[in-house]
Amino acid sequence: MESEFLTKRDTDVRLPWPRLVKNKAPAKIQITAEQILREARERQEPDIRRPKQKIVDPHELSEHRLRKRKEFEEHIRRARRNPSAWVKYALWEESHGDFARARSVWERALDVDYRNHVLWLKYVEFEMRNGFVNHARNVWDRAVSLLPRVDQLWWKYIHMEEMLRNVAAARQLFERWMQWRPDAQGWLSYVKFELRYGETDHAFIRYAEFETKWGGVARARAIHERAADLLSEDDEEAEKLFVAFKEVERARCIYKYALDCIPKERAEDLYRKFVSFENRYGDPDGIEDAIVRKRRCQYEEEVRRNSLNYDSWFDYIRLEESVGNKDVIRKVYERAIANVPPAVDKRYWQRYIYLWINYLLYEELHAQDMARTKEIYRKCLKLISCMKVSFAKIWIMAAQFEIRQMNLEAARKILGNAIGIAPKDKIFKNYIKIELQLGNLEKKSLFETERARAVFELAIAQPTLDMPELLWKAYIDFEISEHEYERTRQLYERLLDRTRHLKVWISYAKFEASAGLEVEEADGKKKSENHDASSHEQQMQCIQRCRAVFERASDYFRANASELKEERAMLLEEWLNMESSFGSLGCVNTVQKKLPRKIKRKRAITTEDDTPIGFEEYYDYIFPDEVAMISNLKILEAAYKWKRQKVDNDDDR
Question: What range(s) does the Pre-mRNA-splicing factor Syf1-like N-terminal HAT-repeats domain occupy (predicted)?
């Protein structure tokens, strides 16, 4: 019974039987992982190291130093902006005890890039490491004067003075630093410095925390309010002042006020603490609001760094749409579409244009503001028209929107402008499709064929099209579907005036062969069993018209036989297949006599300067009419040769 349920795949794929281990006793010789690693280590080949160079006299030492200095100078000449090259050079001079030369190298490095604070730090470390305190103070003063916004320089300078027990100088440096209004960490460092030395009267920024710790709640609140007033005028990075006070409702108000006052790019830590605060004290709505605020801050930072990052704008918009505030959503959309790509290149516009599409869909489907949707369509079409970028999707969407608003004239006007500005195949096809659908709606059973035909005529009259062959094929298929066979023949003749491509000839011939059958099927299937004389005559006419097309095509390719031999052979193959499909009415023998002979030949390969480099094989086609022509040429050549011999003999006599 089980074999009845096995499929063919189950019977084809057989899994191996598991092998039974007969002897499960441990091996006599046990090998540990430690032994394997030790053996691998012992079998490794020793590393090849450079031999150590020993210098035995001052002359060799001077030559060695000269050679190394030349190497360092050459390296600096090649990589002048590379700070590591300068650092290595200076450290090498220091290692040889030549402090004057090392100091000269540091000064040269600062002349190249004085904005690199790492060079200043290493320069000062060199001076301090070798006990040159006054030199170090000189370097620190120059560094903080040139780079007053680099906090690390101030911290290191103050730390040096504090390690030397020069508290007054350290306090003076803090006062100089505070004049530049550093971030909150700088002020906190100043406060901690004063608290370390018992100077509580100098602790200004951490005054509120000090009062809270020692019981002055009212005074602490007053300090917080004063800080909020200061930050509202000058939004420096001091959000820690807002999080020190711990009354829940007041703290929540302070958080929200601070998030509105402090710039988004500076409030990352404040947002993190606000989320932590809501997780601890808030309800689910408050937590959700805090998370949304934090994510909003992140997206604001991303679009601030790169306003052309459209993926960040999409994420930002999705966040606001999840919140559901229409005014905020529209504001973000307007900010996003204001960032137009700088270059007129469709690669940059593909992501950008979907901001408009999403905006349009939101206004129409979610906000349901049709007037605003129409205005946005107008702005978008105006933009892509001025920037010379074509997006058929936008034009078609605008026309379909007008149709949904029952404004057919506006839809036709939009499509007409689209054809004039961006004549793309997609626009023509959709215009024709819309006209046919409108014909069904307005006239019940009559299609607007004349309007569709006019659109096709306008389309093929365009001087440049992306894929004109598809447009011609659509026009021809349209006329065939309307059973307008004379118009179809005229279209084929017009197309042949533009191009004599092989596919056009074959398509024309196949149309002529099937035109009569389609007419018969259109009249009904009553004649399918007994073909009378009229249907036979009609079929013969179709076959004759088909042969006439093949004859014209064969004459054209024969006239250009030197260039189009392969196309001529393919045409004859199609003609032979067509004659075979006619059955007893076909003339297969006539076409077979025209088929070429396929032979393999060799031809020389030359370079651009006509130098032969070899031979290559290729296939050639020999047609019967070419063989006859070659025979006639041989006869004429023999007759000419006989005549020349006869003239020579007469002259000898």
Answer: 71-199, 297-434
How many domains would you assign to the chain?
3
Q: What is the distance between the alpha carbons of residues 646 and 42, in angstroms, rounded to a whole number?
A: 101
- What pLDDT digit, counting tens, does each position of 515-558 carry? 755 544 444 444 444 445 666 777 788 888 888 888 888 888 77
Tell me which residue of 161, 210, 155 sits closest to 186, measured CA to CA: 155
Q: Map residue 620 onto helix, strand or coil.
A: strand
DSSP string, 142-205: HHHHH-TT-HHHHHHHHHHHHHTT-HHHHHHHHHHHHTT---HHHHHHHHHHHHHTT-GGG--T
Please check whether residue 482 lies inside any domain of the structure.
yes
**C-alpha R_g of the chain:** 45
Q: What is the dihedral of CA 300, 302, 304, 306, to 10 degrees?
A: -150
Amino acid at 556: Y
Q: In angstroms, rounded to a whole number, what is the distance separating the alpha carbons of residues 291 and 284?
A: 11
Rounded Cα distance between 339 and 62, Å, is 64
CA dist 298 → 144, 338, 429, 530, 607 (Å): 33, 20, 44, 80, 62
Using the 3D structure, point to which of 368, 387, 406 is the last residue of a domain. 387
Cβ neighbours around 607 below 10 Å, total: 8
Please tell me the distance from the alpha carbon of residue 582 to that of residue 514, in angstroms, as a whole number: 11
User: Among 340, 357, 387, which residue terminates a domain?
Assistant: 387
d(CA 603, CA 265): 72
* Structural domain range at position 582: 554-651
Whether 609 is covered by a domain: the verdict is yes
- Poorest-pLDDT segment among 184-193, 222-231, 539-548, 563-572: 222-231
Strands 597-606 and 612-622: antiparallel
Helix (H) or strand (E) holding 619: strand 612-622
Res 146: pLDDT = 93
396 and 489 co-located in one domain: yes
Residue identified by tokens 């004659």 is 579
Do 591 and 639 sit in the same domain of this protein? yes
Q: The tokens of 418 are what?
A: 């689209």
* CB-count burial class (<10 Å; 0-12, 13-18, 19+) for 249: exposed
What are the residues whose beta carbons fall under 8 Å from the beta carbon of 165, sequence distance 6 or more?
Answer: none
As beta bridge partners, residue 600 has 619
- What do you get for the CA distance between the two ends of the chain, in Å? 112
Tell me the per-residue pLDDT of 375-423, one tens digit each, with 9 for 90 and over: 888 888 888 777 666 778 888 888 888 888 888 888 888 887 877 777 7
Q: Which helix (H) or strand (E) holds 554?
A: helix 533-559
Closest CA to 174 of 164, 189, 184, 160: 189
In eight-state DSSP terms, residue 345 is -
